Amino acid sequence: MSDSKEVLERLQKVISRKGIASRRQAEQLISQGMVKVNGITVTEQGIKVTPVDIIEVSGVKIQNSDVLTYVLLNKPKGVITSASDPQKRKTVIDLIKDQIDTRVYPVGRLDYDTSGLLILTNDGELTYRLTHPSYGVEKTYRVWIDGHISQESLDILRNGVYLEDGITSPASIMIDQVGKKGKELTRVEVTIHEGKNRQVRRMFAKVGHPVLELQRIAFGPLKLDEKLLPGTYRNLLKSEVIALKKEVGL
Ligand code: URA
């Protein structure tokens, strides 16, 4: 059910492994419509789930993973945010797998050419809440754009800009630096509450200022750890996990 390519276990096997029912009883619960995966009732047998999928049996959530792991990666450019890539490009999992034994999954996505703060975890409930638009978790990006941006364009971006998949919600945007590297450039800090595909790049392109560099510097209460070099990672501190959970009511 998860969009991760890495399929793990059959749903009935997970339910029985958790001691809730035998394999056969689990199949019956599924056909009776008592089981939901990511909020959707599943009646088909044989569906496969990963540790980030949220499974509910008779309205009670079960954690499909034993050890909860939370990793903060400073994603470099040129790496794909996925568990595997048919084109064999390097993935964020390749960067951490030598030292993190537990299977973890990225919380949301950063584009191939975007760098910065990425959380990886096997905590399905937290992943769901941090990425679902209804929780409106703030994400802040440091963005170098082409040219000098007018007040009018800033107002358009702040109030909401029409993209192919709808209007964006209000964003906060601050000019941070104006510069020149052979051409006019501006560095801005942008905070958005949603996560449309390539949203920041499309917002600025729409007002005529292509994004040249994009880095995520904050995700909810977490800030990019400047000591963490691109491509390196660390486990989240207990206090950081608590702050993240609190942000989404856990
Ligand atoms: N917005 C984008 O355009 N790209 C990202 O990677 C993240 C936010």
What are the defining features of this structure?
single chain; 250 residues; alpha+beta; Structural Genomics Hypothetical 15.5 Kd Protein In mrcA-pckA Intergenic Region, Chain A; Alpha-Beta Plaits; 3 domains; 9-stranded mixed β-sheet; 4-stranded antiparallel β-sheet; 7 helices; binds uracil
What does this 3D model show about the protein?
The chain is of the alpha+beta class and 250 residues long. The protein has three domains: 9-62, Roll (Structural Genomics Hypothetical 15.5 Kd Protein In mrcA-pckA Intergenic Region, Chain A); 70-133 and 222-247, Alpha-Beta Plaits, CATH 3.30.70; 138-219, Alpha-Beta Plaits (2-Layer Sandwich), CATH 3.30.70. The protein is 22% helix and 30% strand. It contains seven helices and 17 strands. The protein has helices spanning 11-17, 23-31, 92-96, 124-131, 151-159, 199-206, 238-247, and strands at 9-10, 35-37, 40-41, 48-49, 55-57, 60-62, 70-75, 105-106, 115-121, 139-146, 162-163, 166-167, 172-180, 184-192, 211-219, 222-223, 233-235. Strands 7, 8, 9, 10, 13, 14, 15, 16 and 17 form a nine-stranded mixed β-sheet that branches. A four-stranded antiparallel β-sheet has the order 3-2-5-6. The protein has a two-stranded antiparallel ribbon with strand order 1-4. A hairpin with a 3-residue loop joins strand 13 (172-180) and strand 14. The longest helix is centred in the last third of the chain and has 10 residues, at 238-247. The protein is elongated. The mean pLDDT is 91. The chain binds uracil. The site of uracil (URA) has 8 residues, from helix 6. Uracil binds at residues 110-111, 114, 198-201, 214.
